[in-house]
Amino acid sequence: MRASANGIELEYDTFGERTNPPMVLVMGLSMQMIAWHERFCAELASRGFWVVRFDNRDVGLSTHLTGAPVPKIPAILGGDRASVAYSLEDMARDTVGLMDALGIDAAHVAGLSMGGMIAQCVAIDHAPRVRSLASIMSTTGDPSVGEAKPEVLVELLRPSPPDRDAYLAYGVGLWRLLASPGFPFDEAATRELVGRAFDRAYDPMGIARQIAAIASSRDRTPALREVRVPAVVLHG
Questions:
Q1: Is 179 exposed, middle or buried (0-12, 13-18, 19+ CB in 10 A)?
Q2: Are 105 and 21 in contact (CB under 8 A)?
Q3: What pLDDT digit, counting tens, does each position of 128-154 carry?
């Protein structure tokens, strides 16, 4: 399903009864809504929520900003934002726009990684629309906290290969780096998810534009201190 939101089109689907309290799930960098596994969404629905998951702009079946400038990440990190196509705040407005399209006045908003950053922006800038906030494996925009290990950051920023088989190897390797050592790594399930995402939509420049949004984001720490909704931070 598709909805018009904040001047773009967002692909989404839902789980559970529409009459239940809504929960909006916001996925992270480069990841499509299918990374919120169907069983997980169905479990949340069984707990009494109307669950909404969606593709962020520039991934999956949502609008890709193909005419935007090529992001120049080193320049952005140096303070030159001329090649930044949009901000995390714009992506927060996408989320709220989807809520508008679905007739949701306020929702429980849960975001993972970049999605956690977006969810934080929703709670900061659109507080009346948030019933509760869950920020998962994310950070506040303060460069002194929440940084990835150097070896992981290198892989996150490395251009992904265009060939499907090479991309599968790259994606599985990246997920292996990201996965918790406290749990067994399910390589078969990871390979299946990476393959589904590649076949559904593959746009490396869209991912670069998302990286630019993160790289140019503000430090949200002072504003987060003013958030007055029930919140949980999941990290490990």
A1: middle
A2: no
A3: 999 999 999 999 999 888 778 888 888
